[in-house]
Protein backbone atom coordinates (compact mmCIF):
# COMPACT_ATOMS: atom_id res chain seq x y z
CA UNK A 1 0.00 0.00 0.00
CA UNK A 2 1.37 3.43 -0.95
CA UNK A 3 1.98 6.04 1.68
CA UNK A 4 -0.59 8.31 0.07
CA UNK A 5 -3.62 6.19 1.09
CA UNK A 6 -2.64 5.96 4.76
CA UNK A 7 -4.55 8.39 6.97
CA UNK A 8 -3.26 9.85 10.22
CA UNK A 9 -5.16 7.44 12.55
CA UNK A 10 -3.74 4.53 10.66
CA UNK A 11 -0.17 5.85 10.92
CA UNK A 12 -0.50 6.57 14.62
CA UNK A 13 -1.93 3.12 15.24
CA UNK A 14 0.74 1.52 13.07
CA UNK A 15 3.43 3.03 15.26
CA UNK A 16 2.01 1.11 18.19
CA UNK A 17 1.95 -2.30 16.43
CA UNK A 18 4.22 -4.92 17.96
CA UNK A 19 3.56 -7.99 15.78
CA UNK A 20 3.06 -8.91 12.11
CA UNK A 21 -0.45 -10.27 12.76
CA UNK A 22 -1.53 -6.95 14.20
CA UNK A 23 0.04 -5.17 11.27
CA UNK A 24 -1.75 -7.48 8.78
CA UNK A 25 -5.13 -6.95 10.54
CA UNK A 26 -4.71 -3.18 10.39
CA UNK A 27 -3.67 -3.34 6.75
CA UNK A 28 -6.78 -5.40 5.75
CA UNK A 29 -8.96 -3.05 7.80
CA UNK A 30 -7.56 -0.12 5.82
CA UNK A 31 -8.22 -1.92 2.50
CA UNK A 32 -11.87 -2.68 3.36
CA UNK A 33 -12.44 0.89 4.40
CA UNK A 34 -11.29 2.05 1.00
CA UNK A 35 -13.71 -0.42 -0.58
CA UNK A 36 -16.48 1.17 1.54
CA UNK A 37 -15.46 4.59 0.23
CA UNK A 38 -15.40 3.41 -3.38
CA UNK A 39 -18.77 1.57 -3.41
CA UNK A 40 -20.52 3.83 -0.84
CA UNK A 41 -23.61 1.63 -0.27
CA UNK A 42 -25.49 0.66 2.85
CA UNK A 43 -24.81 -3.04 2.37
CA UNK A 44 -21.03 -2.56 2.05
CA UNK A 45 -21.04 -0.42 5.20
CA UNK A 46 -22.97 -3.08 7.12
CA UNK A 47 -20.55 -5.75 5.85
CA UNK A 48 -17.62 -3.66 7.14
CA UNK A 49 -19.24 -3.19 10.61
CA UNK A 50 -19.97 -6.90 10.77
CA UNK A 51 -16.36 -7.72 10.02
CA UNK A 52 -14.80 -4.89 12.07
CA UNK A 53 -17.25 -3.78 14.80
CA UNK A 54 -14.36 -2.05 16.60
CA UNK A 55 -12.30 -1.22 13.54
CA UNK A 56 -10.41 1.94 12.93
CA UNK A 57 -13.32 3.31 10.86
CA UNK A 58 -16.31 1.81 12.66
CA UNK A 59 -17.58 5.20 13.83
CA UNK A 60 -17.42 6.74 10.33
CA UNK A 61 -19.14 3.63 8.97
CA UNK A 62 -21.93 3.81 11.53
CA UNK A 63 -22.55 7.42 10.60
CA UNK A 64 -22.77 6.39 6.96
CA UNK A 65 -25.24 3.62 7.84
CA UNK A 66 -27.36 6.11 9.83
CA UNK A 67 -27.31 8.45 6.86
CA UNK A 68 -28.43 5.65 4.54
CA UNK A 69 -31.24 4.73 6.98
CA UNK A 70 -32.37 8.37 7.09
CA UNK A 71 -32.42 8.57 3.29
CA UNK A 72 -34.33 5.30 3.03
CA UNK A 73 -36.97 6.60 5.48
CA UNK A 74 -37.34 9.78 3.47
CA UNK A 75 -37.68 7.73 0.25
CA UNK A 76 -40.24 5.45 1.98
CA UNK A 77 -42.30 8.49 2.99
CA UNK A 78 -42.19 9.77 -0.61
CA UNK A 79 -43.22 6.35 -2.02
CA UNK A 80 -46.03 6.07 0.56
CA UNK A 81 -47.38 9.52 -0.33
CA UNK A 82 -47.19 8.53 -3.99
CA UNK A 83 -49.22 5.36 -3.26
CA UNK A 84 -51.80 7.43 -1.34
CA UNK A 85 -52.09 9.87 -4.23
CA UNK A 86 -52.74 7.05 -6.73
CA UNK A 87 -54.87 5.09 -4.25
CA UNK A 88 -54.93 1.91 -6.35
CA UNK A 89 -54.27 -1.71 -5.55
CA UNK A 90 -51.22 -1.77 -7.78
CA UNK A 91 -49.71 1.38 -6.16
CA UNK A 92 -49.99 -0.17 -2.65
CA UNK A 93 -48.63 -3.50 -3.90
CA UNK A 94 -45.69 -1.64 -5.44
CA UNK A 95 -45.03 0.06 -2.06
CA UNK A 96 -45.12 -3.34 -0.28
CA UNK A 97 -42.67 -4.81 -2.80
CA UNK A 98 -40.14 -2.19 -1.74
CA UNK A 99 -41.07 -1.83 1.98
CA UNK A 100 -42.79 -5.05 3.04
CA UNK A 101 -41.94 -4.37 6.69
CA UNK A 102 -41.96 -0.61 6.37
CA UNK A 103 -43.51 1.96 8.62
CA UNK A 104 -46.80 1.97 6.65
CA UNK A 105 -46.74 -1.68 5.58
CA UNK A 106 -49.73 -2.70 7.74
CA UNK A 107 -51.87 0.10 6.42
CA UNK A 108 -50.80 -0.76 2.84
CA UNK A 109 -51.73 -4.43 3.40
CA UNK A 110 -55.14 -3.36 4.77
CA UNK A 111 -55.70 -1.18 1.72
CA UNK A 112 -54.80 -4.06 -0.62
CA UNK A 113 -57.16 -6.42 1.25
CA UNK A 114 -59.94 -3.84 0.95
CA UNK A 115 -59.42 -3.57 -2.78
CA UNK A 116 -59.48 -7.37 -3.12
CA UNK A 117 -62.72 -7.58 -1.09
CA UNK A 118 -64.44 -4.90 -3.17
CA UNK A 119 -63.29 -6.52 -6.39
CA UNK A 120 -64.63 -9.89 -5.24
CA UNK A 121 -68.02 -8.34 -4.39
CA UNK A 122 -68.15 -6.66 -7.77
CA UNK A 123 -67.37 -9.94 -9.51
CA UNK A 124 -70.16 -11.67 -7.62
CA UNK A 125 -72.60 -8.94 -8.62
CA UNK A 126 -71.50 -9.21 -12.25
CA UNK A 127 -71.87 -12.99 -12.13
CA UNK A 128 -75.42 -12.70 -10.81
CA UNK A 129 -76.29 -10.27 -13.60
CA UNK A 130 -74.74 -12.62 -16.17
CA UNK A 131 -76.67 -15.58 -14.80
CA UNK A 132 -79.94 -13.64 -15.14
CA UNK A 133 -79.06 -12.61 -18.69
CA UNK A 134 -78.07 -16.18 -19.59
CA UNK A 135 -81.40 -17.48 -18.26
CA UNK A 136 -83.28 -14.93 -20.38
CA UNK A 137 -81.14 -15.79 -23.45
CA UNK A 138 -81.72 -19.50 -22.88
CA UNK A 139 -85.48 -18.98 -22.85
CA UNK A 140 -85.27 -16.84 -26.00
CA UNK A 141 -83.13 -19.45 -27.78
CA UNK A 142 -85.58 -22.22 -26.84
CA UNK A 143 -88.40 -20.19 -28.36
CA UNK A 144 -86.37 -19.55 -31.50
CA UNK A 145 -85.41 -23.22 -31.79
CA UNK A 146 -89.07 -24.20 -31.52
CA UNK A 147 -90.02 -21.75 -34.24
CA UNK A 148 -87.08 -22.97 -36.36
CA UNK A 149 -88.22 -26.56 -35.97
CA UNK A 150 -91.72 -25.71 -37.17
CA UNK A 151 -90.31 -23.74 -40.10
CA UNK A 152 -87.89 -26.57 -40.89
CA UNK A 153 -90.69 -29.12 -41.00
CA UNK A 154 -92.61 -26.90 -43.41
CA UNK A 155 -89.40 -26.39 -45.45
CA UNK A 156 -88.78 -30.14 -45.70
CA UNK A 157 -92.35 -30.85 -46.78
CA UNK A 158 -92.24 -28.11 -49.43
CA UNK A 159 -88.89 -29.34 -50.72
CA UNK A 160 -90.11 -32.93 -50.89
CA UNK A 161 -92.97 -31.84 -53.15
CA UNK A 162 -90.64 -29.67 -55.24
CA UNK A 163 -88.07 -32.35 -56.02
CA UNK A 164 -90.87 -34.78 -56.77
CA UNK A 165 -92.18 -32.52 -59.56
CA UNK A 166 -88.67 -31.39 -60.60
CA UNK A 167 -89.94 -28.41 -62.58
CA UNK A 168 -88.46 -24.96 -62.85
CA UNK A 169 -91.69 -23.25 -61.75
CA UNK A 170 -91.85 -25.37 -58.56
CA UNK A 171 -88.27 -24.51 -57.65
CA UNK A 172 -89.13 -20.85 -58.16
CA UNK A 173 -92.21 -21.21 -55.86
CA UNK A 174 -90.06 -22.91 -53.23
CA UNK A 175 -87.69 -19.93 -53.26
CA UNK A 176 -90.62 -17.52 -53.14
CA UNK A 177 -91.76 -18.88 -49.75
CA UNK A 178 -88.44 -20.28 -48.47
CA UNK A 179 -85.82 -17.94 -49.92
CA UNK A 180 -83.39 -18.66 -47.07
CA UNK A 181 -84.61 -22.20 -46.59
CA UNK A 182 -82.61 -25.31 -45.98
CA UNK A 183 -82.50 -26.15 -49.69
CA UNK A 184 -82.47 -22.61 -51.11
CA UNK A 185 -78.99 -22.94 -52.61
CA UNK A 186 -79.87 -26.23 -54.26
CA UNK A 187 -83.12 -24.72 -55.58
CA UNK A 188 -81.14 -21.78 -57.04
CA UNK A 189 -78.68 -24.20 -58.61
CA UNK A 190 -81.52 -26.22 -60.12
CA UNK A 191 -83.12 -23.06 -61.53
CA UNK A 192 -79.70 -22.07 -62.98
CA UNK A 193 -79.42 -25.49 -64.57
CA UNK A 194 -82.86 -25.15 -66.16
CA UNK A 195 -81.96 -21.66 -67.39
CA UNK A 196 -78.60 -22.84 -68.72
CA UNK A 197 -80.29 -25.74 -70.48
CA UNK A 198 -82.89 -23.42 -72.03
CA UNK A 199 -80.11 -21.05 -73.04
CA UNK A 200 -78.03 -23.84 -74.55
CA UNK A 201 -81.01 -25.19 -76.49
CA UNK A 202 -81.75 -21.74 -77.88
CA UNK A 203 -78.08 -21.16 -78.67
CA UNK A 204 -77.83 -24.55 -80.32
CA UNK A 205 -80.91 -23.78 -82.45
CA UNK A 206 -79.39 -20.46 -83.51
CA UNK A 207 -76.01 -22.12 -84.11
CA UNK A 208 -77.57 -24.81 -86.26
CA UNK A 209 -79.16 -22.15 -88.44
CA UNK A 210 -75.89 -20.20 -88.62
CA UNK A 211 -73.89 -23.35 -89.30
CA UNK A 212 -76.11 -24.24 -92.22
CA UNK A 213 -75.70 -20.73 -93.62
CA UNK A 214 -71.94 -20.80 -92.99
CA UNK A 215 -71.59 -24.22 -94.56
CA UNK A 216 -73.20 -22.98 -97.74
CA UNK A 217 -71.07 -19.81 -97.72
CA UNK A 218 -67.83 -21.69 -97.04
CA UNK A 219 -68.56 -24.22 -99.75
CA UNK A 220 -68.95 -21.37 -102.19
CA UNK A 221 -65.76 -19.69 -100.95
CA UNK A 222 -63.81 -22.96 -101.10
CA UNK A 223 -64.96 -23.52 -104.65
CA UNK A 224 -63.86 -20.00 -105.57
CA UNK A 225 -60.57 -20.46 -103.70
CA UNK A 226 -59.91 -23.74 -105.47
CA UNK A 227 -60.45 -22.15 -108.87
CA UNK A 228 -58.24 -19.18 -107.90
CA UNK A 229 -55.59 -21.50 -106.41
CA UNK A 230 -55.47 -23.63 -109.54
CA UNK A 231 -54.99 -20.49 -111.62
CA UNK A 232 -52.27 -19.22 -109.25
CA UNK A 233 -50.43 -22.56 -109.30
CA UNK A 234 -50.56 -22.59 -113.08
CA UNK A 235 -49.20 -19.03 -113.16
CA UNK A 236 -46.45 -19.89 -110.64
CA UNK A 237 -45.35 -22.96 -112.60
CA UNK A 238 -45.08 -20.79 -115.70
CA UNK A 239 -43.07 -18.16 -113.75
CA UNK A 240 -40.70 -20.80 -112.34
CA UNK A 241 -40.22 -22.22 -115.79
CA UNK A 242 -39.18 -18.80 -117.17
CA UNK A 243 -37.25 -18.01 -113.94
CA UNK A 244 -36.74 -14.27 -114.53
CA UNK A 245 -37.11 -11.35 -112.14
CA UNK A 246 -39.64 -9.74 -114.47
CA UNK A 247 -41.90 -12.77 -114.22
CA UNK A 248 -41.53 -12.93 -110.43
CA UNK A 249 -42.42 -9.24 -110.22
CA UNK A 250 -45.46 -9.78 -112.44
CA UNK A 251 -46.51 -12.67 -110.21
CA UNK A 252 -46.33 -10.38 -107.14
CA UNK A 253 -48.27 -7.71 -109.00
CA UNK A 254 -51.20 -10.04 -109.72
CA UNK A 255 -50.89 -12.11 -106.51
CA UNK A 256 -49.62 -9.73 -103.76
CA UNK A 257 -50.91 -12.12 -101.06
CA UNK A 258 -50.49 -15.35 -103.00
CA UNK A 259 -49.28 -18.65 -101.59
CA UNK A 260 -45.93 -18.24 -103.35
CA UNK A 261 -45.48 -14.54 -102.50
CA UNK A 262 -42.69 -15.22 -100.00
CA UNK A 263 -40.91 -17.51 -102.46
CA UNK A 264 -41.19 -14.90 -105.22
CA UNK A 265 -39.83 -12.13 -102.97
CA UNK A 266 -37.01 -14.35 -101.79
CA UNK A 267 -36.07 -15.31 -105.33
CA UNK A 268 -36.07 -11.66 -106.42
CA UNK A 269 -34.00 -10.72 -103.36
CA UNK A 270 -31.63 -13.65 -103.85
CA UNK A 271 -31.44 -12.81 -107.54
CA UNK A 272 -30.34 -9.21 -106.88
CA UNK A 273 -28.06 -10.19 -103.98
CA UNK A 274 -26.40 -12.82 -106.12
CA UNK A 275 -25.75 -10.30 -108.88
CA UNK A 276 -24.52 -7.67 -106.42
CA UNK A 277 -21.96 -10.19 -105.16
CA UNK A 278 -20.79 -10.87 -108.72
CA UNK A 279 -20.83 -7.26 -109.95
CA UNK A 280 -18.77 -5.93 -107.03
CA UNK A 281 -15.88 -8.36 -107.47
CA UNK A 282 -12.50 -6.63 -107.81
CA UNK A 283 -11.67 -8.41 -111.07
CA UNK A 284 -14.38 -9.11 -113.62
CA UNK A 285 -14.14 -9.06 -117.42
CA UNK A 286 -16.80 -9.68 -120.05
CA UNK A 287 -17.05 -9.56 -123.85
CA UNK A 288 -18.58 -6.87 -126.05
CA UNK A 289 -18.61 -6.05 -129.77
CA UNK A 290 -14.97 -4.91 -129.60
CA UNK A 291 -13.42 -7.74 -127.58
CA UNK A 292 -13.03 -8.11 -123.83
CA UNK A 293 -13.22 -5.36 -121.21
CA UNK A 294 -13.66 -4.78 -117.48
CA UNK A 295 -17.27 -4.60 -116.27
CA UNK A 296 -18.55 -1.02 -115.94
CA UNK A 297 -20.64 -0.38 -112.81
CA UNK A 298 -23.88 1.43 -113.64
CA UNK A 299 -26.06 3.27 -111.13
CA UNK A 300 -28.92 1.07 -112.31
CA UNK A 301 -28.30 -2.51 -111.16
CA UNK A 302 -30.67 -3.89 -113.81
CA UNK A 303 -28.41 -2.51 -116.56
CA UNK A 304 -25.46 -4.50 -115.22
CA UNK A 305 -27.63 -7.60 -114.86
CA UNK A 306 -28.86 -7.26 -118.44
CA UNK A 307 -25.28 -6.86 -119.68
CA UNK A 308 -24.09 -9.91 -117.74
CA UNK A 309 -26.99 -12.09 -118.87
CA UNK A 310 -26.16 -11.28 -122.48
CA UNK A 311 -22.44 -11.99 -121.96
CA UNK A 312 -20.79 -15.04 -123.55
CA UNK A 313 -17.43 -14.53 -121.87
CA UNK A 314 -16.81 -14.12 -118.11
CA UNK A 315 -13.42 -13.83 -116.41
CA UNK A 316 -13.41 -13.53 -112.58
CA UNK A 317 -9.90 -14.80 -111.95
CA UNK A 318 -7.80 -13.50 -109.06
CA UNK A 319 -10.62 -12.61 -106.61
CA UNK A 320 -9.69 -15.01 -103.76
CA UNK A 321 -13.14 -16.58 -104.01
CA UNK A 322 -13.92 -19.62 -101.85
CA UNK A 323 -17.11 -20.34 -103.81
CA UNK A 324 -18.51 -19.20 -107.14
CA UNK A 325 -21.12 -16.38 -107.03
CA UNK A 326 -24.59 -17.88 -107.54
CA UNK A 327 -25.45 -15.20 -110.12
CA UNK A 328 -23.34 -17.08 -112.67
CA UNK A 329 -26.08 -19.72 -112.73
CA UNK A 330 -28.35 -17.17 -114.50
CA UNK A 331 -25.84 -16.54 -117.29
CA UNK A 332 -27.25 -19.09 -119.71
CA UNK A 333 -25.42 -17.63 -122.75
CA UNK A 334 -21.88 -18.19 -121.37
CA UNK A 335 -19.54 -20.17 -123.57
CA UNK A 336 -16.35 -19.16 -121.68
CA UNK A 337 -15.91 -19.16 -117.88
CA UNK A 338 -12.51 -18.33 -116.41
CA UNK A 339 -12.19 -18.64 -112.60
CA UNK A 340 -8.48 -19.35 -112.16
CA UNK A 341 -6.33 -18.00 -109.30
CA UNK A 342 -9.03 -18.15 -106.60
CA UNK A 343 -9.45 -20.30 -103.47
CA UNK A 344 -12.26 -22.56 -104.71
CA UNK A 345 -12.57 -25.88 -102.89
CA UNK A 346 -15.69 -27.22 -104.61
CA UNK A 347 -17.85 -26.34 -107.60
CA UNK A 348 -21.61 -25.65 -107.14
CA UNK A 349 -24.16 -28.11 -108.46
CA UNK A 350 -25.68 -25.51 -110.79
CA UNK A 351 -22.51 -25.30 -112.92
CA UNK A 352 -23.65 -28.41 -114.82
CA UNK A 353 -26.61 -26.35 -116.16
CA UNK A 354 -24.28 -24.02 -118.10
CA UNK A 355 -24.55 -26.36 -121.06
CA UNK A 356 -23.35 -23.78 -123.63
CA UNK A 357 -19.89 -23.65 -122.06
CA UNK A 358 -17.07 -24.33 -124.49
CA UNK A 359 -14.20 -23.23 -122.28
CA UNK A 360 -13.84 -23.78 -118.52
CA UNK A 361 -10.68 -22.58 -116.76
CA UNK A 362 -10.27 -23.79 -113.16
CA UNK A 363 -6.50 -23.28 -112.95
CA UNK A 364 -4.77 -22.48 -109.62
CA UNK A 365 -7.55 -23.31 -107.13
CA UNK A 366 -7.98 -25.87 -104.34
CA UNK A 367 -10.82 -27.88 -105.86
CA UNK A 368 -11.02 -31.42 -104.54
CA UNK A 369 -14.67 -32.20 -105.20
CA UNK A 370 -16.86 -31.86 -108.29
CA UNK A 371 -20.65 -32.11 -108.88
CA UNK A 372 -21.87 -35.56 -109.92
CA UNK A 373 -23.10 -34.51 -113.38
CA UNK A 374 -20.05 -32.65 -114.67
CA UNK A 375 -20.34 -34.87 -117.75
CA UNK A 376 -23.45 -32.82 -118.69
CA UNK A 377 -21.11 -30.09 -119.96
CA UNK A 378 -20.96 -31.86 -123.31
CA UNK A 379 -19.94 -28.79 -125.33
CA UNK A 380 -16.65 -28.20 -123.48
CA UNK A 381 -13.77 -27.80 -125.94
CA UNK A 382 -11.15 -26.28 -123.65
CA UNK A 383 -10.68 -27.47 -120.07
CA UNK A 384 -8.00 -26.17 -117.71
CA UNK A 385 -7.42 -28.30 -114.58
CA UNK A 386 -3.91 -26.98 -114.00
CA UNK A 387 -2.38 -26.37 -110.56
CA UNK A 388 -5.23 -28.11 -108.68
CA UNK A 389 -2.96 -30.54 -106.85
CA UNK A 390 -4.76 -33.51 -108.47
CA UNK A 391 -3.20 -36.96 -108.47
CA UNK A 392 -5.28 -38.34 -111.34
CA UNK A 393 -7.48 -36.96 -114.10
CA UNK A 394 -11.18 -36.89 -113.01
CA UNK A 395 -13.24 -39.60 -114.67
CA UNK A 396 -15.96 -37.17 -115.85
CA UNK A 397 -13.44 -35.67 -118.33
CA UNK A 398 -13.81 -38.89 -120.32
CA UNK A 399 -17.42 -37.92 -121.20
CA UNK A 400 -16.44 -34.57 -122.76
CA UNK A 401 -16.57 -35.86 -126.33
CA UNK A 402 -15.83 -32.48 -127.94
CA UNK A 403 -12.75 -31.74 -125.82
CA UNK A 404 -9.91 -30.34 -127.94
CA UNK A 405 -7.55 -28.80 -125.35
CA UNK A 406 -6.77 -30.28 -121.92
CA UNK A 407 -4.47 -28.42 -119.51
CA UNK A 408 -3.05 -30.35 -116.54
CA UNK A 409 0.15 -28.41 -115.85
CA UNK A 410 1.60 -27.72 -112.39
CA UNK A 411 -0.09 -30.77 -110.82
CA UNK A 412 3.16 -32.04 -109.35
CA UNK A 413 1.64 -35.26 -107.94
CA UNK A 414 0.17 -36.28 -111.30
CA UNK A 415 2.31 -39.21 -112.48
CA UNK A 416 0.33 -40.64 -115.40
CA UNK A 417 -2.59 -40.11 -117.75
CA UNK A 418 -5.58 -42.48 -117.92
CA UNK A 419 -5.62 -44.74 -120.97
CA UNK A 420 -8.97 -43.38 -122.17
CA UNK A 421 -7.18 -40.11 -123.08
CA UNK A 422 -5.88 -41.99 -126.13
CA UNK A 423 -9.43 -42.46 -127.43
CA UNK A 424 -10.58 -38.82 -127.15
CA UNK A 425 -11.28 -38.13 -130.79
CA UNK A 426 -10.91 -34.34 -130.93
CA UNK A 427 -8.11 -33.84 -128.39
CA UNK A 428 -5.26 -32.02 -130.17
CA UNK A 429 -3.65 -29.97 -127.39
CA UNK A 430 -2.24 -31.38 -124.15
CA UNK A 431 -0.47 -29.27 -121.51
CA UNK A 432 1.28 -31.43 -118.94
CA UNK A 433 4.29 -29.27 -118.01
CA UNK A 434 5.58 -29.34 -114.43
CA UNK A 435 3.97 -32.75 -113.72
CA UNK A 436 5.57 -36.14 -113.18
CA UNK A 437 4.25 -37.49 -116.48
CA UNK A 438 7.33 -38.46 -118.48
CA UNK A 439 6.11 -41.14 -120.83
CA UNK A 440 3.37 -41.17 -123.49
CA UNK A 441 4.35 -44.45 -125.12
CA UNK A 442 0.95 -46.00 -124.33
CA UNK A 443 -0.93 -43.27 -126.23
CA UNK A 444 -0.19 -44.28 -129.83
CA UNK A 445 -3.41 -42.88 -131.29
CA UNK A 446 -2.81 -39.56 -129.60
CA UNK A 447 0.82 -39.29 -130.76
CA UNK A 448 -0.11 -40.07 -134.38
CA UNK A 449 -2.79 -37.38 -134.50
CA UNK A 450 -2.15 -34.53 -136.94
CA UNK A 451 -1.63 -30.97 -135.62
CA UNK A 452 -1.16 -32.32 -132.10
CA UNK A 453 0.44 -29.91 -129.60
CA UNK A 454 1.94 -31.24 -126.37
CA UNK A 455 3.56 -29.00 -123.76
CA UNK A 456 5.61 -31.10 -121.32
CA UNK A 457 8.59 -31.19 -118.95
CA UNK A 458 11.28 -33.93 -119.05
CA UNK A 459 9.26 -36.12 -121.40
CA UNK A 460 10.97 -39.35 -122.54
CA UNK A 461 11.04 -39.14 -126.36
CA UNK A 462 13.14 -42.20 -127.13
CA UNK A 463 10.11 -44.23 -128.20
CA UNK A 464 9.17 -41.62 -130.84
CA UNK A 465 11.89 -42.85 -133.19
CA UNK A 466 10.16 -46.18 -133.44
CA UNK A 467 7.03 -44.35 -134.58
CA UNK A 468 9.04 -42.61 -137.37
CA UNK A 469 7.89 -39.15 -136.33
CA UNK A 470 11.30 -37.53 -136.07
CA UNK A 471 10.69 -35.27 -139.04
CA UNK A 472 7.80 -33.37 -137.50
CA UNK A 473 8.79 -33.91 -133.89
CA UNK A 474 9.82 -30.34 -133.12
CA UNK A 475 6.59 -28.92 -134.44
CA UNK A 476 4.38 -31.30 -132.48
CA UNK A 477 5.91 -31.45 -129.02
CA UNK A 478 7.52 -28.71 -126.93
CA UNK A 479 9.63 -30.00 -124.08
CA UNK A 480 11.05 -27.92 -121.23
CA UNK A 481 14.13 -29.65 -119.85
Question: What would you say this structure looks like, in words?
Answer:
The protein has 481 residues and is of the alpha/beta class. It has 3 domains: 3-86, no CATH class; 169-223; 280-480, Ribonuclease Inhibitor (Leucine-rich repeat, LRR (right-handed beta-alpha superhelix)), CATH 3.80.10. Helix content is 53%, strand content 7%. It has helices spanning 8-15, 20-39, 42-51, 58-86, 89-98, 105-165, 168-177, 184-242, 245-254, 261-279, 301-310, 444-448, 473-476, and strands at residues 285-288, 291-294, 313-315, 336-338, 359-361, 382-384, 405-407, 429-431, 453-457, 477-480. Strands 2-1-3-4-5-6-7-8-9-10 form a 10-stranded mixed sheet. β9, α13 (473-476) and β10 form a beta-alpha-beta unit. α3 packs antiparallel against α4 (58-86), α4 runs antiparallel to α5 and α9 runs antiparallel to α10 (261-279). The protein is elongated and about 155 Å long. It starts with 7 loop residues before the first helix and ends with a strand. Mean pLDDT is 84; it is low at 1-6 and 467-475.
Write the layout of secondary structure elements.
Elements: H1 8-15, H2 20-39, H3 42-51, H4 58-86, H5 89-98, H6 105-165, H7 168-177, H8 184-242, H9 245-254, H10 261-279, E1 285-288, E2 291-294, H11 301-310, E3 313-315, E4 336-338, E5 359-361, E6 382-384, E7 405-407, E8 429-431, H12 444-448, E9 453-457, H13 473-476, E10 477-480
Parallel strand pairs: 3-4, 4-5, 5-6, 6-7, 7-8, 8-9, 9-10
Antiparallel strand pairs: 1-2, 1-3
Helix pairs in contact: 3-4, 4-5, 5-6, 7-8, 9-10
Amino acid sequence: MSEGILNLNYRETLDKVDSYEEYRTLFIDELNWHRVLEQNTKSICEDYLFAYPNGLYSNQTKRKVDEFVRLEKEQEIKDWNKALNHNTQSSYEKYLMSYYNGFHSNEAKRKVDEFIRVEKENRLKEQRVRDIEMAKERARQEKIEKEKKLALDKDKEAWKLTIHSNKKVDYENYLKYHYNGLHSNEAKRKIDEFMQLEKKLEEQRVRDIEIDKERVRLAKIEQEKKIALDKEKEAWNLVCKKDTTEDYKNYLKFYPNGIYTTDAKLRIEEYYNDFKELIHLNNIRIDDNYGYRNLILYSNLDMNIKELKEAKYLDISGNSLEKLPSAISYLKNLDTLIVNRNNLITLPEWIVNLTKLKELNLDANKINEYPKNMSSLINIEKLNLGDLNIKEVPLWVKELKKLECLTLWHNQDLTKLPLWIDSMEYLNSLWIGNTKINNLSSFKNLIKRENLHIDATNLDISYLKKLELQVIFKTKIRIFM
